[in-house]
Design a protein that fits this description.
By secondary structure, this protein is α+β, with helices and mostly antiparallel strands. It has 23 helices and 40 strands. The strands form nine sheets. Strands 15, 16, 17, 25, 26, 27, 28 and 29 form an eight-stranded antiparallel beta sheet that branches.
Length: 1328
């Protein structure tokens, strides 16, 4: 409107073009008035046709003053019209808003009343509907009664009755279906009315009541459906009667064939039990052939009978079943004959096995005979043998018994293995051979019992030998105690000089006696238990026990003597400890006095030296430590000392104080000579700090005004800043090393000032590096974005502004396979970037984007226009938001690909772009940024994937479709769509314990198909004591149904509780295990509980496995059978670790093949990253071809395992060698070239870093930087924007901070600073 007003107010002589479109109504009228007044406008270039006017009378030409006044009047009138129109629109909008608010409030109140009325109306319809349901259920029962005659046999007498029953049943079924359909329609109508009601307190109750009525109607319909084909079922039964005679005749012929085959197998069966060699191979083959023919004839007949039986009912079905039984009997006869023939073939194989078993049994019996011969010494009539002879004889008996037992066990093992081996033969032969082997095994077991009896006899004979051994041990211990008593007397008489020697001898005797008494005590205790377990008469047992008791008394007496000696030794030991503690202190004091005397003499010769010798300083420190330790020890002892010890300690303390005074004199001389050395340390540290401050001066100056510095100088500035930071760190270490020495107070003050200067310098250099790095990153980010935008603009050559990067690459590369830095720079020098970028900024971006050239694939990926969703936003089908429809919602982190240039909505100021969602292929318009600057999409790199193992590339997302080709490990894939995550079924388990045996674990209550395997019951009881289930509640007239075991689950039937006259409580239950019903006593007459209610119990409706854990791979503890109860601890949970499937639509980078990849397990397909890890030693070459026969291969260097490289683009195939190779740059030394990712189809040489390894590598890089500024070349995203301002400089402590610096020698730090300074100078020289 403003453009029309300005046009209307212009002078007629200017002849401007009128605006496009029609002017406003008010302004149109004003223009018409001006036209009538003679104001003309040129119409040959306007958007409307020229005005046709009648010739008018020539008016005199107005003066310029009148024309200006008229134009001012027109403008004022136009402004008034606009103001009135604006005010009218605002008033109309306000009135409309108030009317909408009033209308909404009224509608809300009416809606609440309407909901309550609807709920009341629907509730009144429920009783009528319930009556119809009851009527339908009654008619269903009537149908069952009418169809009862049809279950009888179809005879002539009942033919008319059954025909009438069919007619009555069909009429009843038809009428009942009509009633059921009417009730169902009314129920569905009421359901829809209830669902249409919004809210309401009684809606939930109505829904529950309707669900119950629905269940009853469905049950009634199921019963009616059983009789819907009553006539057809009856006719099928009649037809089956006719078929029965034919099948009976056919079966008779088949039975004759079967009997013939069985008769041919009878001779084989007769010979089977005697000599198998009498059988001929021809007889067995003839019998087998006859059996095969009979089985081939019988099988189709049996299948025909079974097929005809399907769908039959009543007596006809029973006759068919009889025929089936006859056929199955013939089949069983054939199977028995077949088994006889097979046993005949394998019968001879068992004879060698039986022979070897008997030979082994004979060998075992010879060993047993030799074992009995070892008992001969004890059978000569000698009651007690000498100890040596008895021990030897008993050992021989034990050895022989062990040898015999070993032979028996070996034979038993052999026989057991042969029993298993004969089981592979035919059943009858295996049974016979197994019986023979079992007999042999039984004989071996009998021999084992004889050996054990022999061992028992040997143990009995050993009793006497044990008693003799006990007596001998006790006598040895008594001799040691006697010796200890003699030495104890000497210890009491010992003096201070020989007290320690006497105590040592007595302690040695005590150790010997203690060992002897302990051995005797152990011997008595062990052998007493052994003798009680020995077999023998009561007199022998009593005799052995009495000997043991006497030995125990003697051992107790010896232990009392040992305790007396312990008290005596403790007293002597206390005396020795006091003497020893004082003796050590005296030795320390004497040594300190000697060292102080030597140092005092040596200090007289220090006048000629500027510094005391290092060994003398160390000696002073050592003596001071010795005196301090001795003084502290004496003071502690004085606090608890008494008597003589206290007096001796006070004397020692006085001598220590005297020695400390002499040492202080020597220490003063040392401090006097260290002052000159401290001054030199301060001077060197001050020079190092001053040098570092000079280095950081230019860096701080540049950080104050970074815009004044050349862009290309920033990398050098940052490198010089790091050198300054390192120099300041070394100066800080030098100051810290100086502070670690023993310095005077004034020297410490100087070092403290230097330390403050170091901290200030560290803070300045870190701040300057942070600001320079941040400014450099921003410059790089903005410049890169401008350069990439210019390239994308140049690549938009398709319809609708779509990218055509191939044409731009061909134009820039000039026929080569790669774009160089010079070619790209020439392009920008010719066409510019479209923004205010300097040549230096463009040159900087070229160094970052094209350090080693751009291939076609790398160029395509660089220009790819991908975005990542930063905020939840909808994708719409139209650019205009007012008329657009929502396609779907984009989630945060989702990737989209731009399919055109970003367009700005003129009215709303939104930046919108046409996008393609990578996840599912949805396309539409998405808002990139609002007018207020809120970003919904951020730039992202082109997504790539790589294969960790071989997978199939298929034609569609279905995993069963044809395979395009096989993708091998290490191949890179361009992600076109996906991933689509799919879970392949999920089981449910709950944790608890089984009621029958208390097995705990996770019970599977739902399988992967969603079928219920166990359901929860609330009326469950658990049997706590075994009890009988009876048929009636009365004890006098009841009979037992079955026994209810402990832990068995019982389901309480409603309204079934009784209290007998004899007391207690009885209830009627249904057993969950087998479904039997009966009465069970829950509480006895004396109050004993036999069954008690339980909560949260599940009953298995089919076999349910009980797992050890919730994981999919957990083992099965056991399987619960149907009817078993399970007590749950918590609600069911989904099984973790179930099967998952991820589907991707990809394009292979190697050959451009498109297709779908289905990943069945985690880790098959992973995101591709540019940083690779070297797995094996691999050469880095200058060119891609790795085949020396095709081209000379020049090796740059060899990449070592665990080394990291940056790959410029996904790996491609070298056609000369078939290897998968990638162009990369080593992070270690920036060496560039080509490296092999995979050699043919063998294992990988390199692979991309995982997410965890990438985080670890970044953390390691940050730690090596030590808190310095961020990298001079920050990583670029798809648009060339950097990662934002680095916070590395403000976090953590630098390498040069004194708080974390190790205490290193001053000379070492100084040498390291000088070496580092030389290296920096030589590096600058080489670079220049």
């Amino acid at each position: 409107m403003s453009s029309w007003s300005s046009w209307a107010g212009q002078s007629a002589t200017e002849s401007p073009k009128p605006p496009q479109g029609l002017p406003p109504v008010g302004l149109r009228a004003k223009i018409a008035t001006l036209r009538q007044q003679g104001v003309k406008r040129p119409s040959d270039t306007g958007s409307f046709s020229p005005l046709k006017q009648e010739p008018v009378k020539q008016e005199p030409v107005e003066s310029p003053a009148d024309n200006s006044a008229r134009q001012a009047k027109i403008r004022a009138l136009a402004e008034k019209i606009r103001s009135e129109s604006r005010q009218s629109r605002e008033e109309s909008a306000q009135q409309k808003k108030q009317q909408e608010a009033d209308k909404q409030a009224a509608l809300t109140e009416q809606s609440k009343k309407k909901v309550e009325e609807e709920l009341l109306r629907v509730e009144n319809l429920i009783p009528g509907l319930e009556e119809k349901v009851v009527s339908a259920e009654d008619e269903t029962e009537r149908i069952a009664i009418l169809a009862a005659p049809l279950s009888m046999e179809a005879v002539e007498d009942l033919k008319e009755v059954q025909a009438q029953a069919i007619r009555d049943t069909e009429r009843a079924v038809k009428a009942t279906k009509i009633h059921l359909d009417g009730a169902v329609r009314e129920l569905e109508k009421i359901k829809r009315e209830v669902q249409a009601i919004q809210g309401g307190a009684g809606k939930t109750k109505l829904v529950a009541e309707l669900a119950k009525l629905d269940e009853r109607l469905q049950a009634a319909r199921a019963k009616v459906d059983e009789h819907k084909n009553v006539r057809k079922d009856h006719e099928a039964a009649t037809q089956a009667e006719k078929t029965l005679a034919e099948l009976s005749g056919r079966l008779a012929g088949v039975e004759m064939e079967c009997e013939k085959a069985v008769m041919m197998a009878e001779p084989i069966a007769k010979v089977l039990g005697s000599d198998l060699q009498e059988l001929g191979a021809a007889d067995i083959r003839e019998a087998k052939e006859a059996l095969r023919v009979a089985q081939a004839t019988l099988a189709p007949t049996l299948r025909l009978i079974i097929g005809k039986s399907a769908g039959l009912k009543g007596p006809v079905l029973q006759k068919m079943l009889d025929l089936q039984s006859r056929a199955e009997e013939s089949k069983n006869q054939l199977e028995r004959a077949q088994q006889t023939v097979e046993e005949a073939q394998s019968g001879a194989a068992a004879q060698p096995i039986l022979k070897q078993a008997k030979e082994r049994l004979a060998a075992v019996e010879e060993i047993l005979e030799r074992m009995r011969e070892t008992e001969a010494p004890f059978l000569m009539g000698i009651e007690t043998l000498p100890a040596d002879e008895s021990t030897e004889a008993l050992d021989k008996m034990d050895t022989a018994a062990k040898l015999a037992m070993s032979a028996l066990l070996d034979s038993n093992k052999y026989v057991s293995l042969k029993i298993v081996e004969v089981g592979r033969l035919s059943e009858a032969t295996a049974s016979s051979a197994r019986q023979e082997l079992e007999k042999v095994k039984k004989q071996i077991d009998d021999h084992v019992q004889r050996v054990r009896k022999f061992q028992a006899e040997a143990s009995k004979r050993r009793r006497v030998h044990l008693v003799v051994g006990i007596k001998h041990s006790v006598e040895v211990a008594e001799a040691a105690i006697q010796k200890l008593q003699e030495l104890s007397g000497e210890l009491r008489k010992a003096t201070a000089e020989n007290l320690a020697e006497a105590l040592e001898k007595a302690r040695a005797a005590d150790v010997e006696a203690q060992s002897a008494v302990t051995a005797a005590r152990r011997e008595v205790q062990d052998k007493q238990q052994d003798m009680r377990q020995q077999e023998g008469g009561q007199a022998e047992t009593l005799k052995g026990d009495s000997e043991v008791l006497r030995s125990k008394v003697r051992v107790n007496s010896m232990e009392a003597e040992l305790n007396k000696f312990k008290r005596l030794a403790g007293e002597a030991d206390e005396k020795i400890k006091v003497q020893k503690s004082l003796h050590d202190i005296f030795q320390v004091l004497a040594s300190a006095d000697a060292d102080i005397q030597r140092l005092s003499e040596a200090s007289k010769h220090w006048l000629a030296n500027p510094k005391p010798p290092a060994e003398d300083e160390q000696a002073v420190t050592a003596v001071q430590g010795t005196l301090s330790g001795a003084t502290s020890q004496v003071e502690k002892k004085i606090q608890a000392a008494r008597g003589l010890e206290l007096k001796e300690l006070k004397t020692v303390l006085g001598r220590l104080q005297k020695a400390q005074k002499a040492l202080d004199t020597v220490k003063e001389a040392v401090r006097e000579r260290n002052r000159s050395e401290s001054k030199g340390l301060v001077q060197e540290a001050s020079a190092a700090v001053q040098k570092a401050e000079q280095m950081l001066g230019p860096i701080v100056k540049a950080a104050a005004a970074p815009a004044n510095e050349p862009v290309l100088r920033f990398p050098d500035l940052l490198a010089e800043g790091k050198d300054a930071l390192q120099s300041m760190s070394q100066a800080t270490e030098l100051v810290a090393a100086g502070q670690a020495k023993q310095l005077m107070l004034e020297v410490k003050v100087e070092f403290a000032r230097l330390q403050m200067r170091c901290k200030t310098g560290m803070r300045k250099i870190k701040t300057a590096l942070s600001e320079l790095s941040s400014y450099h990153e921003n410059t790089v980010s903005q410049s890169t974005a401008a350069v990439l935008d210019a390239l994308r603009t140049a690549a938009r050559r398709g319809e609708g502004g779509a990218y055509v990067p191939e044409e731009l690459f061909t134009e820039l590369a000039s026929g080569s396979e790669m774009i160089s830095e010079k070619q790209l720079s020439d392009f920008f020098a010719t066409y510019g970037t479209g923004s205010q970028l300097s040549d230096e900024q463009v040159q900087l971006v070229m160094r970052l984007l094209v350090p080693h050239g751009l291939t076609r694939r790398a160029f395509d990926a660089l220009l790819a226009d991908y975005y990542s969703v930063a905020r939840d936003i909808a994708i719409t089908d139209d650019f205009e938001i007012q008329s657009a429809k929502k396609v779907r919602k984009l989630e945060v982190g989702e990737l989209v690909e731009a399919r055109g240039a970003v367009q700005i909505h003129e009215t709303l100021g939104l930046e919108r772009v046409m996008c393609f969602a990578v996840l599912d292929g949805a396309s539409g318009w998405v808002t990139v940024r609002t007018k207020a600057g809120v970003s919904y999409l951020t730039s992202a790199p082109k997504p790539f994937l790589y294969c960790t193992q071989d997978v199939s590339l298929r034609r569609s997302a279905d995993s069963e479709t044809d395979c395009v080709r096989q993708l091998h490990a290490g191949e890179a894939l361009e992600l076109l769509q996906g991933p689509e995550h799919e879970r392949l079924g999920s089981e449910k388990r709950l944790r608890g314990i089984a009621c029958s045996d208390e097995s705990s674990g996770w019970l599977q209550v739902q399988n992967s198909d969603g079928a219920t395997m166990a359901e929860e019951r609330n009326n469950m009881f658990k049997c706590t004591e075994a009890i009988a289930m009876t048929d009636v509640e009365d004890f006098d007239s009841c009979s037992m149904v079955r026994r209810v075991d402990v832990g068995e689950a019982l389901e309480l039937l409603p309204g079934s509780e009784a209290n007998p006259d004899s007391g207690g409580t009885r209830m009627k239950f249904r057993a969950c295990r087998d479904g039997l019903e009966g009465w069970v006593t829950t509480r006895g007459s004396q109050g004993k509980v036999y069954a008690q209610p339980v909560k949260r119990h599940f009953v298995c409706i089919q076999a349910c496995p009980l797992h050890a854990g919730l994981g999919a791979e957990s083992s099965v503890v056991r399987v619960l059978m149907p009817g078993e109860a399970f007590e749950a601890f918590e609600d069911p949970k989904e099984v973790t670790g179930g099967l998952k499937r991820d589907t991707y639509k990809v394009r292979a980078v190697r050959d451009g093949a498109d297709g779908w990849v289905v990943a069945q397990s985690a880790g098959e397909i992973l995101p591709w990253r540019k940083t690779y890890k070297v797995l094996k030693t691999v050469p880095l070459t200058k060119s891609q071809p790795a085949n020396e026969a095709a081209e000379v291969v020049e090796v740059v260097r060899v990449l070592e395992p665990d080394e990291l490289v940056d790959v410029s683009e996904p790996p491609t195939e070298d056609r000369s060698s078939g290897q998968l190779r990638a162009r990369c740059v080593a992070q270690k030394d920036q060496s560039a070239g080509w490296a092999t990712v995979r050699d043919g189809l063998s294992s990988l040489h390199m692979r991309p870093l995982t997410e965890a390894e990438l985080i670890e590598a970044k953390a390691l890089t940050a730690a090596e930087d030590g808190g310095a500024a961020a990298s001079t070349t920050p990583p670029l995203d798809k648009s060339g924007k950097g990662g934002g301002k680095s916070k590395t400089a403000s976090k953590g402590k630098g390498r040069g901070q004194a708080s974390n610096a190790p205490k290193r020698p001053f000379v070492e730090v100084k040498q390291e600073m000088e070496q580092s300074s030389w290296q920096r100078s030589s590096k600058r020289y080489r670079s220049s």
